[in-house]
């Protein structure tokens, strides 16, 4: 902490820092325990086309803490990424998603569903990441085209050449890639052409700004993203769709696949299956 202040400035240790260190340590211990005691679970949020067809679901991790209740990923994923625990968590998430795909393969209602998993930077650059995926696909005997990995811009930009290389190896296994939260980072649209993405997800930031269905100034960016995705033959999904007006606007602009509270919140698998079943009736 003294070092992080930079320069030659000597900073004395403050009691608040101790509290912070202790808190982070306690959280790390708790994450360890959560893995051992299986306190994590996956929630599923559907991706739907304009005609209401459910094409897949995004798996979103939840921590069901015995005392503190449900904990959102924003609270523990960043620290797990820093401590390295994300590697174990990420493995668990992938394994769980593959098991789910295997179970859905023999379920009439769910057999066509794709599952999307969020991949963190550290997990993606693990030396044995490609082998891990190959092993899971083989072990669970899943159709690899049913598994989508969602990557963020910052992950890809960490080392563009290495990212392209890894993505190509993973694509060779048959998996799909989605660019998550696209449009709010610092990247240019042009580098998308270098990356083998199958899907682009328009960040909720843009969608949220247009909750009344009016085009904001930023909507030009959304239209540019839609144009680029179409040019490269990438599928498009808009995230965070909460109102019918947003859905209409996106549809008019050429985006025909959606995810958001307008349709369904992320739910435990039994609730998700029940939701799907109700829609069929
Ligand atoms: P993300 O991948 O961009 O996921 C979308 C987030 O938006 C989710 O939050 C989802 O619950 C929320 N969301 C979906 N529809 C709506 C909507 O209509 N309105 C609003 N306001 N929010 C909506 P969540 O589940 O809290 O996840 C947050 C982030 O945590 C994810 O962003 C992802 O980056 C990360 N994350 C989640 N699960 C995992 C995981 O298994 N591994 C890793 N590495 N990261 C994960
Ligand atoms: Mg995502
Ligand atoms: Mg997203
Ligand atoms: Mg996000």
Automatic annotation (TrEMBL):
It comes from the Bacteria. Residues 24-280 form the EAL domain. Signal peptide: none annotated. This is EAL domain-containing protein. It comes from Alkalimonas cellulosilytica. The chain holds residues 559 to 839 of 839 of the full protein.
